[in-house]
Amino acid sequence: MTIDTVRVDLGARAYDVRIGPGLLSRAGQEIAPLLKRRRVAVLTDETVAGRHLEGLRQGLGDIEMTALALPAGESTKGWPQFSRAVDWLLAEKVERRDIVIALGGGVIGDLAGFAAAVLRRGVRFVQIPTTLLSQVDSSVGGKTGINSVHGKNLIGAFHQPSLVLADIDVLNTLPARDFLAGYGEVVKYGLLGDAAFFDWLETNAPAMAAGDAGARQYAVRRSVEMKARIVERDETEEGDRALLNLGHTFCHALESATGYTGRLLHGEGVAIGCALAFELSQRLGLCSQEAPSRVCAHLKAMGMKCDLSDIPGDLPGADGLLALMAQDKKVVDGKLRFILARGVGDAFVASDVDTDTVRGLLEDALSRR
Ligand code: GLY
């Protein structure tokens, strides 16, 4: 299989996303053109280090590699592990012209990218995303950061990577639940802007989940292409980039309500959030009755969560969930901002959605539990 290249065309900050099998084992060739000296510093987590760090070391060939493995999990994405990572990079004498590598999922990519953004006022970094979610979303587009006690991703910077290596082979070591959670973000791309891609997913996603490498490569490429085009239009989320948050207003409230635990993974919350966003769009008279049913039918066919009833344990009431939505950093001037849809593949940003309609939707969804 060949390797695909998606260019993220941001002028002086342009970079390639390379997608395909075997990229870890050829990391040295891929990264060498960026290096001023043959040395890289890798930030990773303990789980990913166990699976892939030796493969990366071999792939780097004669490029010297030093690595720090942080604890795996969302709680790493805060000040203590961030300052540990930055101090380690300084102790390793990483210089302005050096490259930091983020080897891991979204937590490591966001933390390492933010460390690179502030280290010596900014060093370059390469993303090597090891989850489906980070390959199709968080490794591309330059959002970096950590969580605060006040909420997720509230501390950070836009800092574009210099290269992204999305190795399809590493998806083989992902637990099935993590793969499907990442698939929530893939579905999001079809739903927000490409009906033909959603059609394709309805036919091909079962094979993709079962391990079909060609289908995986195509789905990652198409997702990254869509993200790249949106980021090129709106790098710092003044407008269109908000489309990428389809399902996320609901998702963030549900993640907060479930304490960012294994009860609900981020991508699972995105899938449920997309289904709710389509149901909301239908209630607002924007799309047909068939659209939300089709979204939910596909998620169910994939064995994914698609409704509040699929979340184990207690949830707050409709007003409690609304209050959590109001804390979302996407709130502008106190107004809830949703991504709504006129149909599959046709989403838009709505900045002033009627709160009573949202409350009614949540009450009905909670009564289905
Ligand atoms: N994950 C949404 C974005 O990158 O804008």
TrEMBL record:
UniProt: NAD(+) binding residues: G106, V107, I108, G109, D110, T130, T131, K143, K152
PANTHER family: 3-DEHYDROQUINATE SYNTHASE (PTHR43622), 3-DEHYDROQUINATE SYNTHASE, CHLOROPLASTIC (PTHR43622:SF7)
Major site of localization recorded for this protein: cytoplasm
Organism the protein comes from: Albidovulum marisflavi
EC numbers on record: 4.2.3.4
Family to which the UniProt record says this protein belongs: Belongs to the sugar phosphate cyclases superfamily. Dehydroquinate synthase family.
Keywords: Amino-acid biosynthesis, Aromatic amino acid biosynthesis, Cobalt, Cytoplasm, Lyase, Metal-binding, NAD, Nucleotide-binding, Zinc
Subcellular location: Cytoplasm
Residues of the 3-dehydroquinate synthase C-terminal domain: 182-331
Required co-factors: NAD(+); Co(2+); Zn(2+)
Pathway annotation: Metabolic intermediate biosynthesis; chorismate biosynthesis; chorismate from D-erythrose 4-phosphate and phosphoenolpyruvate: step 2/7
Domain 3-dehydroquinate synthase N-terminal as annotated: residue spans: 69-179
GO molecular function: 3-dehydroquinate synthase activity
Organism classification: Bacteria, Pseudomonadati, Pseudomonadota, Alphaproteobacteria, Rhodobacterales
Stored HAMAP family: DHQ_synthase
Cofactor note (record): Binds 1 divalent metal cation per subunit. Can use either Co(2+) or Zn(2+).
Recorded catalytic activity of this chain's protein: 7-phospho-2-dehydro-3-deoxy-D-arabino-heptonate = 3-dehydroquinate + phosphate
Binding site for Zn(2+): E185, H248, H266
UniProt name for this protein: 3-dehydroquinate synthase
